Amino acid sequence: MYPTIQFIHSYWAYLTLIVLLIAAVNAIVGYTSNKEYGATNFRLALFSLITSHIQLLIGLVLYFLTPSFQVLMEQGMGEVMKNSTHRLYLVEHPLIMIIAVVLITMGYSKHKTKLTSKPKFKILAIFYTIALILMLSRIPWSAWF
Fold it and tell me: What is the pLDDT of residue 145?
């Protein structure tokens, strides 16, 4: 079961990153070019929110199935923090990804309260871009390709 969940988590990550990148670039372009916020912009923001939440749920399931989790349970957090690989998979990656999904959720929620296009794009641009940068910073690139 672990390899299947890991496969899904890895490939859903591509979709999540692509959609988040498109949504962030769309928000930046919309903000800088004074475009009107429309249904397509709303759908991009929403789809980014949905894909990131699905990725988070898959990741949480994977977290408790990973063999590294057994190391945490048997040897404790002290041993995990000494090993850079275990620290990445058990602490850094999950924590930063949760923070990124929270930022996406906050940006989506805050942008809905704005009444005009420019503030909507600004909120999405800020929150989605920071979330994208955080996600890119904690992807285990060596294991991903």
Answer: 62
